[in-house]
Design a protein that fits this description.
globular, 25% strand, 7 strands, 5-stranded mixed beta sheet, 169 residues, alpha+beta, Aminopeptidase, binds coenzyme A
Length: 169
Amino acid sequence: MMIKEAVPADALMLAEMFIGYIDGHREYISHGEIQMGVGEGFISGGQLVAVPSGCAKDKWLKYINEHIADKETSNVWKVVDECGALAGFCVADIQEDGDEPFGMVCDVLVSEEYRGKGIGGELLQTAIDWLKGKGVKDIYLESGKNNHSAHRFFEKRGFCHVSEIYKLA
Ligand SMILES: CC(C)(COP(=O)(O)OP(=O)(O)OC[C@H]1O[C@@H](n2cnc3c(N)ncnc32)[C@H](O)[C@@H]1OP(=O)(O)O)[C@@H](O)C(=O)NCCC(=O)NCCS
């Protein structure tokens, strides 16, 4: 399966996969999804309880459309199987509110049936190569506190845990 840049016509398919996934896997919802209105989070017993928001799909569609449209500071890659179904995708962007522009790998998601075949690793490397090609030196990502398998995946691929995020209860 080939990695291709996503086009505007892919946005709905990407949103349906993403929202369907986070609905069943709330460990994916971190402060980033809450800040962008895709998730809602409250603290219970000292722990974040996060759920998709009522307008999660609309908010995420807006976000992904913007990232597909602006190829200067963001990009989206997709992997589609032989039947045309989405097997995975990755989103990267360049943020310019630091001393120097820095890269973010915003989302990486592979459908459960296609995991463990190297697709996630290739999508991540594609995003890293694109960001480096744009001259970015530092690359970050954020991941929900309890998304442990994703943490192992990123650590194995060179990412180091550097910060903790706190939310006022
Ligand atoms: C993290 C994720 C993108 C990895 O995608 P993937 O296509 O399985 O990635 P790869 O095949 O390149 O690597 C997965 C690793 O798990 C192992 N693995 C084996 N079988 C697996 C399976 N059924 N499911 C998942 N991983 C499996 C692979 O061997 C590989 O091991 P390695 O890290 O020692 O190389 C995918 O698990 C996913 O979509 N997770 C949910 C979304 C998520 O949390 N994303 C990160 C948000 S910040």
